[in-house]
Amino acid sequence: MANTILVGAQWGDEGKGKIIDVLTEDSDIVVRTQGGNNAGHTVYIGKQKYVLHLVPSGILRSTKKCIIGNGVVIDPVNLVEEIDGLIKLGIKVDGNLFVSETAHLVLPYHRELDAQREILKGKNKIGTTKRGIGPAYGDKAARTGLRMIDLIHPERFAEKLRQKISENNEVLKAFGAKPLSYKKVHNAYRAAGDRLKPFVANTLVILHEASLTQAEILFEGAQGTFLDIDHGTYPFVTSSNTTAGGACTGSGVPPNRMDRVVGVMKAYTTRVGEGPLPTENAEISDLLHGLGREFGATTGRARRCGWFDAVATGQAAIVNGIDELAVTNLDGLDTIETIKVCVGYRDGKARYDYVPNDIEAFARCEPVYEEFPGWMTPTNHARKWRELPAKARTYLRAIAELTGAELKIVSVGPARAETIML
Ligand code: GDP
Ligand code: IMO
Ligand code: MG
User: Is 1.10.300.10 the CATH classification of the domain at 104-196?
Assistant: First the structure.
């Protein structure tokens, strides 16, 4: 029996949704433990594309249970839309999805504040998804947040919401933004609360009981290591712990029940939003965008693309305790003659083999590259390791070795079948 934490080893969008879908075959329960609908996890089943934002990707397999854990921040109106969209596509949600009573709510003032703060920051903006994630986690830390348990208790919700709207309207006015109508927000959220009530549960108890029956639990990380509030490129980060520890605090499953950590990374690097990205490169960005790839699953923004950064992934392996690696999007490099891999950073005379905590120093860093010959042939037909071109195998072995964990999965296309298990 193995409980598995899956994390992004880069800046998010590593292909976690696809790998979760592959690994879910051997799991009983899939749990989201942090983030909110800033996440966008893409899964293809046949030709059908699904993009999951709050609901764990395991929902696409009808025999699996899915949990949105206490560490997630939930926009209830948005969650209802997502659930209804899945039901319309024939996915079984009732009886398979459970939402933690203690997960915090994202309210319209969080979204509005997120947008206003970004405007105020001007050129120093974070480039958030404007889903209200930062302000919602801010309320949680300030102990002034509303939770799912409040939402499903109408009187309690009404009283707390009235107070929060009146307080936040003062702040919105100071930003020069339009105040919110209590009545409108209340009605929309109460309707969502009624719809979500059957899903709301004490998920700690569900997970504890499941672990007594030896159920296998898969923890679906959102975002990526360098968007972690503590270990990422602060302040260009999200507001939760995206690293492996977040799976414990965001679910209530203790560290000694975790058996393995899988790190997902692309064969190159992408980032959406602002902040340093030393290996950012126009050649690879243009190539991937030209193929219609690397546009955000949540906001549709073009992702910034660059060469594989082994300094960053090596640090991700350390901070998450990554045991096994899944490398995705190998096929994205199929037409590149010479592939670069960053093995160190240089800032003037200083040389780093880790990600410097000084964000200004990191922004100045120039990558030190090693070069690999490209394989110049499509890889998306390979289903076995030996079916990959020798140069691709050399490249994969090198990036796994530089990262410092065992290569276990290679993905050569978005579909389930386009996967090589080592
Ligand atoms: P996530 O947020 O980590 O789940 O990743 P996203 O879904 O936001 O972005 C990953 C993108 O890469 C999606 O469009 C996936 O369908 C796609 N994808 C994942 N693995 C592969 C792969 O091996 N090859 C190709 N071509 N696309 C992939
Ligand atoms: P998945 O789970 C990529 C980025 C935003 C921004 C920063 C802060 O699909 O990998 P936020 O809205 O969270 O306050 O934005 O974090 N970001 C992501 N980038 N993938 C994600 O999720 C992301 N979620 C947030 O672009 O730079
Ligand atoms: Mg994504």
Answer: yes
